[in-house]
Amino acid sequence: MDDTASIMRAKYPRSIVAGPYGHPFHAIAIILPIGAWVSASVFDVISVVGDDPGVFALGARILVALGLLGAVVAAVLGLIDWSAIPKGTPARATGLTHMVLNLIAMAIFTGSLLLRLDADGVPTLAMIASFVGLALLAASGWLGGKLAHTYGVRVATETTQAEGLESLP
């Protein structure tokens, strides 16, 4: 398969579950876990410095759990997209690194949640784990951006994009 054909293959969904051409659901699904985990970390800090630590600790625990549920959905959608990237390409290797970092982050957030389950406040180790998880997500997100913006994975072709621009008033 030549380079043009392999690039084109990675632009199309392997399954309709992954979203239609040019509109990958993975990019939408990542919003829930990232938002939940960032918010949980903010709640962690507020629980440590605020007047009512219990309510923010509970909120953080719930947000970490919601983030994990959302991450499972995002991971499945990302795996479907990754499986369409041709083997032996830089995009596939980048996607694998992106996936591994996200799985490690999920494991770290799972550990953070387990540490929180029977705690009254926010255990220091749980808070540290969450910040480490966020750092991994930042690195992984940069790689996800590289997949879309450098390699064009699941991004509509330039011709399709131009058609959309030409139809604007």
Automatic annotation (TrEMBL):
Keywords: Membrane, Transmembrane, Transmembrane helix. The keyword Nuclease does not apply. The keyword Oxidoreductase does not apply. Residues 22-156 form the DUF2231 domain. The chain crosses the membrane at residues 21-43, 55-80, 100-119, 125-144. This is DUF2231 domain-containing protein. It comes from Microbacterium oleivorans.
